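Re: that backbone. Tokens:
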């Protein structure tokens, strides 16, 4: 054992001191011979550093490689107890969902009880019977309409005549609707304003319209002739309009900002709209036979 104070012991010239395998004390610390801090090992390590040649291509290329290596190790998933438990729960949940879906798809009539099967069969039989009766009724109606005889054909003809009569103004009409009163104290309302009212009501779904004692139809005309005339009949203010249709829709159409009501108010007049569950349009229009238009002959099939 030797005690070293940080420097090597003096040696006689020409003499070599054999390496001692005994531990040394460095800074009063016992150092084993094979420890890296042993003086002999430090000298050998310094010599190896000096004699190691640099790697080819320079040492700069090793820095990014080492950085990418550390990044890859940091991003590598760490398998711990929590991740294992989460993975197992996900697998079990997926298996349960797939099993439920498969069992739902495989459910069929064979899984039902006998009572349920009898009930389903009875329902199908009743539905089939009802559809057969409807087919027979529809075929009978079709044959009656083709031949022009029978109660179905007569009812269809009456319905068609009523519809055409209401549209042409030759029949009175009743139903839900509104009444609109236009006051014109300064006589500034013109025929064009009443035409706008009629157009707005038709756009709102009015099926029958009456202004004063005049039934408004497709051929009704409004003119200014020292007042307003409709089909040659003088209209007197206040103008009362009756329209059959959806009350809420027609009322909203009359109250559109910038619409007919605002226009009449700018002219110095006023409007009042009331909704009713039932109104009656009793004015009738006289239909004149057309001079030129003729119906197209029907071709027998």
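Recovered sequence:
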């Amino acid at each position: 054992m030797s005690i070293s104070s940080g420097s090597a012991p003096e040696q006689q010239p020409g003499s070599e001191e054999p390496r001692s395998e005994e531990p040394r004390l460095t800074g009063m610390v016992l150092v084993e011979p094979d420890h890296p801090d042993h003086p002999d090992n430090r000298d050998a390590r310094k010599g190896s550093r000096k004699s190691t040649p640099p790697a080819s291509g320079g040492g700069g290329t090793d820095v990014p490689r080492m950085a990418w290596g550390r990044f890859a190790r940091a991003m590598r998933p760490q398998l711990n107890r929590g991740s294992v438990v989460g993975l197992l729960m996900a697998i079990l949940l997926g298996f349960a969902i797939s099993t439920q879906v498969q069992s739902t798809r495989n459910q069929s009539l064979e899984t039902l009880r006998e009572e349920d099967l009898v009930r389903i069969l009875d329902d199908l039989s009743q539905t089939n019977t009802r559809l057969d009766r409807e087919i027979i009724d529809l075929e009978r109606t079709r044959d009656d309409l083709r031949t022009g005889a029978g109660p179905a054909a007569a009812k269809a003809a009456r319905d068609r005549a009523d519809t055409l009569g209401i549209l042409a103004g030759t029949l009175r009409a009743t139903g839900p609707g509104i009444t609109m009163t236009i006051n014109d104290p300064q006589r500034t309302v013109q025929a064009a304003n009443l035409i706008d009212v009629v157009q707005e009501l038709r756009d709102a779904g009015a099926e029958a319209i009456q202004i004063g004692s005049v039934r408004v139809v497709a051929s009704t005309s409004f003119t200014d002739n020292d007042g307003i005339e409709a089909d040659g009949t003088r209209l007197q203010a206040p103008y009362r309009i009756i329209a059959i249709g959806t009350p809420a829709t027609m009322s909203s159409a009359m109250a559109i900002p910038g619409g007919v009501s605002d226009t009449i108010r700018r002219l110095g007049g006023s409007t009042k709209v009331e909704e009713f569950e039932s109104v009656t349009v009793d004015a009738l229009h006289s239909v004149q036979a057309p001079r030129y238009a003729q119906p197209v002959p029907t071709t027998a099939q």
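Confidence is low (pLDDT under 50) at residues 1-16, 18-23, 48-58. The helical segments are 39-51, 62-75, 81-106, 114-147, 151-168, 191-203, 247-254, 260-266.
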